Structure formats: structure tokens, C-alpha cells
Amino acid sequence: KNAFLTCFTGGSVIANADRYDFSDLDGLYQIAEDEVPDVERHEVYAHNEALDEWQEVPWRDSLWTDEEDSRMAGEVSASDDWYNVIQYGDILESVGQAIEARDESISPEGHVEVSPSAHKMTARVGLDQTVEPAPGDEIDVDLRIRSGHSGYHGLKFDIGALRQVCSNGMMAFIADQSYEQTHSEPFQKQFAYHAVDSAVEGVDQVEQRLEDAQERELRNMDEAALVLHDFGVD
What we know:
Structural class: alpha+beta
Strand content: 35-45%
Mean pLDDT: 86
Low-confidence stretches: 1-11
Strand order of the largest sheet: 1-10-9-8-7-6-2
Order of helices and strands: EEHEEEHEEEEEHHH
Radius of gyration: 21 Å
Number of helices: 5
């Protein structure tokens, strides 16, 4: 009963990640341009020990970061019909441009995390959006981003809120709306614009949903279990 659990549906914590914090738009752009690594395609080779020969695997590519100490970030299809590289910097830069495109003066804050192998990137972008479903219960609505180079992670934008949901300290991020694409198509920049617009303009809907949730009563243990299942909590 004293357990502490943190749940995220759209921005999981990455162990031993490189973390970059920002407190304004310039900071976000700096991370996009100077901090997160780009990747480049390279060949994949296989070694036959019996023959002591190396041969190229023509249908696969390896993705290596462009850093001085380059890291292998993924191994993917060599065909653009199946896999398009989406650079982390392009994603973050598009979010910044989407913020600038709005009439409001928004100063984003948050952080970006990149896994030790650079195969996965997550980010939290706060957009100065707050809801108050009950007096004194202020909740920040923010944008979560996830992408990767491993061949298993697509690009996903989640708009939602993080709040304490239990007296034991349990926190949960619940996505109210999502936009996502796979790597089978080139980067769809408009998703970043849709995500920022939804985070800014969808505050009223999030607030109403939380107000409705506060009035909901669970009649028995079965109904409680169904609610937990809907939120992905075992």
C-alpha cells in the first residue's frame, strides 16, 4: 500500500537518458539544432564464420548518429517505401515553428530525453495551458512527443495532463488527443501544428472531462477494475 508508481501513456521515462531542459522557445530550438543527434544510413554486413567472409545485406540499413563518437541507433529496411528516417531535430523544430505560428505569446518549457543508444527520443513541452476542474486543483496541459530509429517506434504526439491520482503519490499522464504516423511515409510536419493547436485550443474540453470525472461514482469493485483497465493500469 506504500508503493509509488508513475504512469505515462505517451512519454515513458527512459533509463539513463541524455536529458536537455529548456525554458523558452530559443532553448527548444537550440536543443533541436545542437543537442539531439541526427542519423545517417549505412550498409549492413553479415559474417559467415565458416567461410570467414563478409557480405552486404542489401535489404537492410543501419542508422548511425552523426556525432564524433557515433552510435548505432537502429537497423531498418533499406527501402524508403518501408522506412523513412525522421530526424529528432526536425520534429522539435516543427513544434517550435507551430508555436511561433500562433497569435498568442507562448513561452514553452520542458525537457527532451534521448536514450543512451539514441534509438528513442521523448519530450515534454509545456505550453502555458492550465485547467482548474475544481477550485485550487490546477492542472497543466502539455504536449508529449515520442519517436525512434529502431524500426519499432513511430512518431506520436499526445496532448493531455499529468496529475496526482492517488494519496500514495501515484502520478498519471492521460492523453486526451493524439496524432501519430509511421516511418513508412516521410515526416508529416502538419501533425506538429495540429498537436500544438489542439493543446492550446482544447483546454476547455480537457477541463470539462475532468469535471465530469470528479462527479463519477464507482458502484462496485468490478466497475473500478474496468476503469483501471481503460487507463492501462494493471
